[in-house]
Amino acid sequence: MRQHYLEVVRSFEPFTDMLRAGATSSQVKEAVIALLDPYVTDKDLLRRLSVSVLANEATCVAQLSSRPEWKEILDLAFSIRTRAIEASKAIAFDTLCAFEEHIREAQRKYSLQIVFEQPKEGLKLDEYAFEMFRLIGSLTESTIQPFLKELYCLACIADGRPVSLMAVLRTDFGKVVEDFERLLSNPNFLAPHPWMLRISQWRNIAQHHSYKVVGEKVAVHYGKGPTPRSVEVTRDELFLLAKELIRRLGAMKSTRELTILNHIGELRPLLPTTGAHVYGTATELVAAFATQC
To answer: Could you give the CA distance from residue 189 to residue 77 in angstroms, rounded to a whole number?
Structure first.
């Protein structure tokens, strides 16, 4: 296990800071329970798993609850999953099961991104832009894409629309994002403020290197046709963009885990068996240990 990965995980968990500030382990547990209470239906299970299995989800929910616009993303993702199950439990469960292996592989790749991530302080703007778009391209293509395609299928089920899981898996990412946008009342989920470019557009910009440094800013070009559109971003805004994308990934990931937990009795025999990845297991353990320091 790489020490770098463990240090990154520790930097995001809030429990150690709570304990250092004088909170007791019992107070940390109650804080986790209060945080996850709206999302976990079995309250006895919540109390039993709050400082073990659920500690990592609590970290993510805490981050997303720290700002109203992020909380809206979290609640929207959870609402889609809940409404899909209410509309057709069998089809919704089939969707979760069909995407399970794709989701676990996406999580494995995200863990590896963290492992090989390097500090970017001291990089010149052109170097920084190259590194950030490399990260954004990989994040959107290999990790966010399967989560988002699954959530799109669930949104269709929630709205009573027919959807083919295999067709969605094969469909171009940009087309799925475009279709998904029509189902949502909050465009910010797929097109982060203030840029209002879809996640798939940022993916295209990163993969095609459709940007150049202009003075102290990075001009990014997007769209098809002879006159592509453009928007300028600063160095700090590139970092904020990456954070916005990671928050959306967190919302999709944690609401998925919590939804599965809420229906684990029915889902356990249906979900395909996937081997746990060592870095994913480490993330859960670090969060759990931090609640009990």
So the answer is: 9
For 193-223, the pLDDT digits (tens) are 999 999 999 999 999 999 999 999 999 999 8
pTM recorded for the entire structure: 0.89
Strand 229-233 relative to strand 217-222, pairing: antiparallel
Query: Does the N-terminal peptide bond of residue 269 adopt cis geometry, omega within 30 degrees of 0?
Result: no
Give the sign of the dihedral formed by CA 131, CA 132, CA 138, CA 141. Answer: negative
| pLDDT of res. 278 | 59
Provide the total of helices (H) and of strands (E) in the chain, helices listed first: 15, 3
Cβ of 54: how many Cβ atoms within 10 Å? 29
Q: Domain extents for the chain?
A: 3-290
